[in-house]
């Protein structure tokens, strides 16, 4: 429920006029959203006034004295309400112990008595917001207390909280969510000293960075063995990063180094949320195995308490090619108005790095030489409006990255622009029937590649673009029924991908069909995806929650694709006889041809005329007649244009049952189905590998089916407070899953009816079911003076060894697999993280141990196991920070402390050796 500030008199009238103006403006922003007229509500009541739906019944509480950040989760579990800490900076405030039977209001009053921290009960008694405006008891003048400024809380679920005492700063709502969800906080991102955005996934259970090319600053996470082609949705505030690109480099087991082309600058990210399983909610359309969402910074994250402006400057320098990463962010808000703004600039300069020197692991140092540097800059803007019941925002992240990529001795230069624009409008009045959320978004990605000249190709310019835009609307209604508290979430989402590709060169200017060899892995086309969803949650008793839903996914691929054949033969060239007599007189021929050819002859002109000329004159001129017949090789490339207009659809159910046998234990079981339609790359694939020739290697598969998955999961959340010490906490999240994927898409062989005798390479479905099974664990013990946490991943995958077989009556394919999208994630990934805090928690020092088994391929070795393509590795990282004051913090990290030589999981390039990074964070 939204937090509102009490207004009276002219302030209220002014606020109403401002709301009306804002509603008109947001209608323009959300032009495609149709919704009822927004009813303006009166100012919210203070804590001293009872919310309409609040229950007066008492319930038992047993909460020890502890920090406010720790008490939020405990109070939520024992009260059964959604509890949110509106001001995260108040998390260290010491609360009182509460033991006995009380109403919610009585328990909160005892808990916060004398702290100066306020609370508010909203949502008809189902939501508690701690750290709001004035309570009934005005403590603002009490000595030694601080009354916190009111901060807007988004939604009724507490999901706006981005930090807590869990693993990597995971907030408590994650440990109250019956699903495999992981969160990487902004603090964890900054502490890790990441070289690339994808590095933030290295310590998340069940997730791998998905790195393929050392220079690409892209994000293509592997979640539970699924990767690339939209199998895992990557988004920035809901704006999907759908850009795909294949064959940036080749390999024995992969067809693309970076198929997924998501660009995200962590300088503007407040948290990363990873959902490892789909369900019937917004953001899951077209996803096979979950989503990764990067949530951007807000004004409230930068503006200090009691101020109307704020910001931060972050500068990082390091060794081993870590030249510079820096950013500046500033935020302002109206002192008495609804608007706030954030703006930022970021710059990254990375140079070639040296690999580690310890160990005997294989290395790619020679093949990646001069391919690891990059230069990039980004800008960010966000405007937010808080109009009480209505919340709006408009954000724009612009990124520009320049880097190189290549293979063998050839280097290609890349310049990538990525723009993500998101507009949101939420309406959350007092009514329990309305919690409305909507968004419109646009993501425009354009890659310009300058391909250097090769022996088989001249210098070529290649422009590849993907423009995606879409939106979503949803509403949540809550009811009190005889069966228990019931909430229904329902809505729709849709998006469109439009891909384009243009190649230009001197060779293409002379033969336009040569372009087909450059646009093959980024073909033009259109994809539409839409989804309707409905899910409900019922709590028939305090110890059980049942949720379930259904999603109807629909998609359409529409466009044209042209593929080629190549026909070679010898063409007979004949030249008619041209008699010599038609070109010379006897005398002319005698002096011009006969005498030079026969020096010293005793044949006179008269004798030549009488005896020789009659035979010579009928002879064919040189280059004519039968002797001039030749056989020229001829190559023809007939083109076949294919109209593609295919639709896919499915009803996709999901369900979860959560149990609460104890206050500290919440086990659950889940089931879901998902559908992923082909991407434009997979549907319109045609051409050949880059080169100055007509592309006749690839052809589109008009029988390509969508991938469909069924996932089963069992897991548990555990939360303890005051275990060994009054202020310590334990947070544990674990899960086991099994996923079955039918019609998995890979590269195989195809024949077409138009070309009976040729076999093409194309995207095809595997013949059989792909299985993925695993165990995941994340946990953390935090005693304030020290912490110990970690994550563990066990993953096993089984893949079919054949594709579907095609036949056109003349040729039948073998069913062999040509190449796969990405490698198989390692079986085991372990991280152990611990450290200590000193000097009233101003100074922290931590260490991290990482162990990963080899990346695998899908081919089997002689013993029937998946072949290992890299070596196992163990690395150690150090990190720490010192807060000089509330405004300045120095962070440092030593990554790969032991200077190990290794290839990271699912990567194609050897990792950097020992790297020291220092970061200064100054707030203003």
Structure notes:
- Strand 26 and strand 27 form a beta hairpin.
- With 924 residues, the chain is mainly β.
- The chain starts with 8 loop residues before the first helix and ends with a strand.
- The relative contact order is 0.12.
- The protein contains nine helices and 41 strands.
- The strands form eight sheets. The chain has a 22-stranded antiparallel barrel.
- It is 9% helix and 45% strand.
Report the average pLDDT across residues.
Answer: 84
Q: Which outline best applies?
A: elongated
Helix share, percent = under 10%
Q: How does the helix and strand content classify structurally?
A: mainly beta
The count of strands amounts to 41
Instruction: Provide the gyration radius in Å.
Output: 34 Å
Beta-strand percentage range: 35-45%
What's the main sheet like? Answer: 22 strands, antiparallel, barrel
Report the span from N to C terminus.
Answer: 30 Å
Question: Looking at the chains present, what oligomeric state does this protein adopt?
Answer: single chain
Number of helices: 9
Unreliable spans:
1-55, 133-157, 248-258
Briefly characterize the structure.
The protein contains nine helices and 41 strands. With 924 residues, the protein is mainly beta.
């Amino acid at each position: 429920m939204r937090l509102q500030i009490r207004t009276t008199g002219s302030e209220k009238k002014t606020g109403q006029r401002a709301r009306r103006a804002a509603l008109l403006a947001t209608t323009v922003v959300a032009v495609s959203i149709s919704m009822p007229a927004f009813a303006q509500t009166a100012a919210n009541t203070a804590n001293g006034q009872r919310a309409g739906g609040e229950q007066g019944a008492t319930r038992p509480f047993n909460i020890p004295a502890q920090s406010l950040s720790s008490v939020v989760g405990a109070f939520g579990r024992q009260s059964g309400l959604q509890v949110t800490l509106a001001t995260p900076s108040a998390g260290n405030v010491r609360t009182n112990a509460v033991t006995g039977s009380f109403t919610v209001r009585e328990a909160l009053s005892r808990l916060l008595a004398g702290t100066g921290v306020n609370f508010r009960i909203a949502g008809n008694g189902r939501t508690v917001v701690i750290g709001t405006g004035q309570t009934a008891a005005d403590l603002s003048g009490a000595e030694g207390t601080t009354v916190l400024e009111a901060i807007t809380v988004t939604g009724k679920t507490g999901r706006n909280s981005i930090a807590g005492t869990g693993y990597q700063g995971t907030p408590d709502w994650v440990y109250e969510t019956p699903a495999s969800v992981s969160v990487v906080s902004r603090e964890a991102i900054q502490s890790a000293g990441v070289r690339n955005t994808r590095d933030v996934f290295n310590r998340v259970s069940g997730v791998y960075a998905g790195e393929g090319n050392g220079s690409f600053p892209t994000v293509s996470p592997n979640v539970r063995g699924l990767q690339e082609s939209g199998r895992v949705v990557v988004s920035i505030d809901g704006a999907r990063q759908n850009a795909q690109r294949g064959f940036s480099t080749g390999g024995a087991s992969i067809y693309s180094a970076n198929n997924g082309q998501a660009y995200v600058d962590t300088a503007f990210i407040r948290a990363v949320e990873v959902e490892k399983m789909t369900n019937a909610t917004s953001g899951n359309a077209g996803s096979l195995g979950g989503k990764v969402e990067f949530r951007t910074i807000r004004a409230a994250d930068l503006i200090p308490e009691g101020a109307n402006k704020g910001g931060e400057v972050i500068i990082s320098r390091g060794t081993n090619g870590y030249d510079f990463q820096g950013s500046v962010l500033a935020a302002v808000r109206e002192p008495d108005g609804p608007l706030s703004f954030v703006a930022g600039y970021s710059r990254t300069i990375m140079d070639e790095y040296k690999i580690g020197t310890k160990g005997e692991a294989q290395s790619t140092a020679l093949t990646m030489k001069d391919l690891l540097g990059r230069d990039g800059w980004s800008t960010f803007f966000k405007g937010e409006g808080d109009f009480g019941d209505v919340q709006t925002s408009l954000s724009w992240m612009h990124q520009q990255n320049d880097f190189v990529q290549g293979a063998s001795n050839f280097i290609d230069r890349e310049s990538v622009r990525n723009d993500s624009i998101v507009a949101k409008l939420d309406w959350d009045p007092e009514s329990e029937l309305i919690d409305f959320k909507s968004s419109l978004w646009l993501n425009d990605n354009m890659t310009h590649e300058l391909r250097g000249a090769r022996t088989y190709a001249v210098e070529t310019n290649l422009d590849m673009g993907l423009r995606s835009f879409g939106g979503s609307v949803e509403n949540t209604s809550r009811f009190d029924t005889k069966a228990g508290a019931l909430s229904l979430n329902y809505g729709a989402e849709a998006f469109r991908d439009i891909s384009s590709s243009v190649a230009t060169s001197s060779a293409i200017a002379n033969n336009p069909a040569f372009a087909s060899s450059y646009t093959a892995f980024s073909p033009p086309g259109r994809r539409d995806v839409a989804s309707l969803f409905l899910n409900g949650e019922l709590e028939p008793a305090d110890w059980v929650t049942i949720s379930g839903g259904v999603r109807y996914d629909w998609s359409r691929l529409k466009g044209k694709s042209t593929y080629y054949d190549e026909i070679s033969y010898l063409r007979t060239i004949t030249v008619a006889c041209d008699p010599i007599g038609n070109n010379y007189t006897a005398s002319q021929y005698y002096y011009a041809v006969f005498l030079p050819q026969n020096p010293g002859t005793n044949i006179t002109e008269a004798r030549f005329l009488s005896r020789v000329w009659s035979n010579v004159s009928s002879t064919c001129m040189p280059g004519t007649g039968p002797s001039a017949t030749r056989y020229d090789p001829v190559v023809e490339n007939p083109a076949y244009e294919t109209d593609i207009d295919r639709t896919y659809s499915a009803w996709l159910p999901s369900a979860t049952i959560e149990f609460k046998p104890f206050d500290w234990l919440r086990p659950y079981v889940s089931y879901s189905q998902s559908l992923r339609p082909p991407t434009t790359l997979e549907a319109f694939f045609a051409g050949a590998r880059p080169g100055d020739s007509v592309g006749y290697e690839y052809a589109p598969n008009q029988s390509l089916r969508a991938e469909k998955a069924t996932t089963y999961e069992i897991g548990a959340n555990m939360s303890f407070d005051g275990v060994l010490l009054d202020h310590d906490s334990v947070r544990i999240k674990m899960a086991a899953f099994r996923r079955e994927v039918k019609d998995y898409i890979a590269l195989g062989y195809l024949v077409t009816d138009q070309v009976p005798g040729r076999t093409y390479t194309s995207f095809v479905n595997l013949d059989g079911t792909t299985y993925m099974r695993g165990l995941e664990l994340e946990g953390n013990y935090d005693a304030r003076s020290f912490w110990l946490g970690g994550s563990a991943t066990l993953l096993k995958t089984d893949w079919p060894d054949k594709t579907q077989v095609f036949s056109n009556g003349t040729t039948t394919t073998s069913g062999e697999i040509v190449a796969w999208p990405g490698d198989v994630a390692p079986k085991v990934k372990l991280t152990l993280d611990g450290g200590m805090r000193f000097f009233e928690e101003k100074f922290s020092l931590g260490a991290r141990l990482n162990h990963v088994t080899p990346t695998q391929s899908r081919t089997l070795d002689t013993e029937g196991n998946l072949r290992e393509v890299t070596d196992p590795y163990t690395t150690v990282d150090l990190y720490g920070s010192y807060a000089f004051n509330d405004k300045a913090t120095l962070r440092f990290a030593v990554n790969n402390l032991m200077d190990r030589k290794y290839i990271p999981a699912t990567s194609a390039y050897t990792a950097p050796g020992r790297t020291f990074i220092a970061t200064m964070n100054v707030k203003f």
